[in-house]
Amino acid sequence: MESRFRVLFPVVAAFALSGCAATKDLFGFGPEEAPPPSAEPPGQVIDPEVERREVSEPAIDREDFEVGAFVGMMSLEDFGSDVVYGVRFAYHVTEGLFVETTIGQTEAGLTSFEVLSGGARIIEDDERTFTYYNLNLGYNILPGEIFVGEGRAYNANLYLIAGLGSTRFAGDDRFTVNFGAGVRFLLTDSIALHVDFRDHLYDSDLLGEEKTTHNFEGHLGVTVFF
Amino acid sequence: MLEPSTTTIPSSSPSNQSAWLACVVVIVALQVFIPGHAEAAEKVHRKVAVADPYLEMHTGAGRGYPIFHVVDRGESVEILMQRTTWYLVRAENGTEGWVDQAQMELTLRPDGSPVEFEEADREDFTDARWEAGLLAGDFGGANIISLYGSYSINPSVSLELWGSQILGNFSNGWLGSVNVVHETWPDWRVSPFFTLGAGMIRTEPKSTIIQGEDRTDQVGHVGAGLRVYATRRFLFRVEYKSYVVFTSRDDNEEVEEWKAGFAFFFR
């Protein structure tokens, strides 16, 4: 038994090895044939020196800033309504988000007390100018088109703003919070009309006790993008 | 005897203020209505070729505006203007419309290489040289509104210039200061910083409540805070500062300040 195995094993082993040797070329394991040596040394057939086209690209005109002016009506709590006017400056961060600063001014009228009492004055006449500045964050919440007549469509945006600032009135500066909504109506890609409604809130003690006053403003503005 | 200095403040006159405001309004209005200011000269615009199957033109610079025109592959467009991430382009047939940045990045330059647009990202959050922002908060019980500008010497160290208005119940004031800011890990999305600075504070007590004189004092402060990258060139910032006001009285005043706000960075 053992002797037969001794004979069989080398035979099987030799057969297997020779089989491997016979088939290995089939699978590409054989010795690689060297390519015939070229008769000539590799010379430069084509000069690869390609001239790069120098392309000077003009800078793209960025128009993320918006500047303009507005005029409207402002109602001061206890002090009547008067014309308000001012300036606006905005920077558009994304298509939705923008930051904005507004500076505005209006004149305070007479309180009911001052009217009824005749000559009495709560504040001096030269302190009746009401000036505010605000720093706001805004968001274009409803972009869309506004149709004028049958054949004209204008781009528009309904936006919300909220922010804080300061109000100077009656010889005092007061911390002021304001919020509101507006519509930006784009006449062209660079010129816009605005309709804005805002509420300015600040604490006042002019009429005796400290209270939060609401001062509503509605204005019409025009801005230019640059 | 010297004249009292209170009579020489020009900005407090309301008639001057309104005149100034009116001037600005008029100048801006003139800018708007001067004809032809947009088309002063025939400008040369950057041209790109459409490589995607098509380029969609919107009527306005935003996702909400409808697509009204499509430019086919192979045609070229001129870039007239950019607003945020939208580009106003003119097709070969003269049609003008707005294309968003994602589509513009699939176009090719005249030499065949892909178009790249400069855009602020996280890397600029760390490396940008300039920064400006707005913060508001509490300054020892009063409201404070602050604007600042910053210049980075390197990603970790920057110099800042601050201007603040303080609006309190008993007094108002102004605060200006210069800070040195050190960011320990400037490449983190939420990057902590430490700050040290000095400046001047102007305090104006409200005459109706407190009898007191306006005064100007030196201040020094230390503080710490976080800069948080939001998106594009936009970041949020919160900080705490502890001020020492060097008054002319016997005791120095200490004031604690908390503020939060946002800022932009520029290269």
Q: What integer value in Å does the Rg of chain A equal?
A: 41 Å
Strand numbers in spatial order across the main sheet of chain B: 8-9-10-11-12-13-14-15
Question: Spans of chain A with pLDDT under 50 lasting ≥5 residues?
Answer: 19-24
What gap, in angstroms, lies between the N and C termini of chain A?
102 Å
The share of residues in extended strands of chain B comes to: over 45%
Number of strands of chain A: 8
- Rounded Rg of chain B: 26 Å
Helix content of chain B: 10-25%
Class inferred from helices and paired strands of chain B: mainly beta
Number of discrete helical segments of chain A: 2
The structural class of chain A is mainly beta
- In terms of quaternary structure, what is this? heterodimer
How many individual β-strands of chain B?
15
Q: Helix amount of chain A, in percent? A: 10-25%
Helix-strand string of chain B? HEEEEEEHEHEEEEEEEE
Largest sheet of chain B: 8 strands, antiparallel, barrel
Could you state the order of secondary-structure elements of chain A as H and E? HEEEHEEEEE
Average pLDDT rating of chain A: 82
Largest sheet of chain A: 8 strands, antiparallel, barrel
Give the N-to-C terminal Cα separation of chain B: 54 Å
Task: Please characterize this protein's 3D structure.
The complex is a heterodimer of chains A (226) and B (267). Chain A is mostly beta strands and 226 residues long. In chain A, a hairpin with a 4-residue loop joins strand 6 and strand 7. The longest helix of chain A is centred in the N-terminal third of the chain and has 22 residues. The termini of chain A are far apart. Chain B is mostly beta strands and 267 residues long. Chain B is built from three helices and 15 strands. In chain B, the strands form three sheets. An eight-stranded antiparallel beta barrel of chain B has the order 8-9-10-11-12-13-14-15. Chain B is elongated. The N and C termini of chain B lie far apart (54 Å). The relative contact order of chain B is 0.11. Chains A and B meet through strand 1, strand 2, strand 3, strand 4 and strand 5 of A and helix 1, strand 4 and strand 5 of B.
